[in-house]
Amino acid sequence: MMSGHKNVLKLVGCCVEFYKPVVVCEYAEKGPLKLEDKDGGPLPWTARLTIAKEIANAVAYLHSAFPRVIVNRDISPQNIFLDEYGTAKLSSFCLSISIPEGQSSVIDDKVVYGISTDPEYNGTGIVSEKFDVYSFGVTMLFLLGGELCLVWLSASIGQIGFPFPPAYAEDLIDQFRDVIDSSIWNGESELSGVQVETFFELAMRCIRFPGQDMRTIIDVAKELKGLEDLSKTSTDSKHQPVTELPKPLIKYNDVLGKGKGILYEN
């Protein structure tokens, strides 16, 4: 079912000539997600934004295209591949679980480990769409700053617990900004700076910071599409002041108490 989506690594077949059956998937020329381009330089901000949007679309498809919501439970940077054109492909569905029709969650006793795992899951066994939203938020953080961001997140959860106490919000935000890749944080245009800030604040919502829930992955995908469209419609963003951008749709300051992240209309 999922192999027909353009942002899913297509299943080719299964090889049974090994000790255990091996799943065979299409070849992704550029391999697993990395934050460097072909010349070894940092992956451009526009490419990172597009990758996030494409993976969000794939997850939104899982959550909405079938009679039952399918929760992937294994969304992480290492399970994202890029084809020869740089198109993002989500892989690994072995931990996926469906939620019964008419229900918003399901109980499962499978233990799932990893930095991208929703911290609340292993304590409750409750699987809902929020699991994937959290995991996707972690992937967004990786796109902002690589492994250092994930180390920061893991250390913060270990030290102060999860959900993050609101009293620590300001300090944590300042610490996190220090580990964002400077090549995208200090972009060439005022527009890219606004996009990075908004992307950052959206990632914080996805990981329920500080203790607040994002809505759905469909909302996330729409907001990322809005950010990407803003880049495509801006012909001279390098010299265009922020005050001349389209009318703002949504502000995210209610979550962080500060910042300039804005989602714009097309």
UniProtKB/TrEMBL annotation:
Superkingdom of source: Eukaryota
Pfam families the record matches: PK_Tyr_Ser-Thr
UniProt cross-references to InterPro entries, sorted A to Z: Kinase-like_dom_sf, Prot_kinase_dom, Ser-Thr/Tyr_kinase_cat_dom, WAK-like
GO biological process, one term: cell surface receptor signaling pathway
Entry keyword Signal: no
Chain ranges of the Protein kinase domain: 1-227
Keyword vocabulary terms for this entry: ATP-binding, Membrane, Nucleotide-binding, Transmembrane, Transmembrane helix
Transmembrane segments: 133-155
PANTHER family membership: PROTEIN KINASE DOMAIN-CONTAINING PROTEIN, WALL-ASSOCIATED RECEPTOR KINASE-LIKE 21
Record protein name field: (rape) hypothetical protein
Organism the protein comes from: Brassica napus
Taxonomic path: Eukaryota, Viridiplantae, Streptophyta, Embryophyta, Tracheophyta
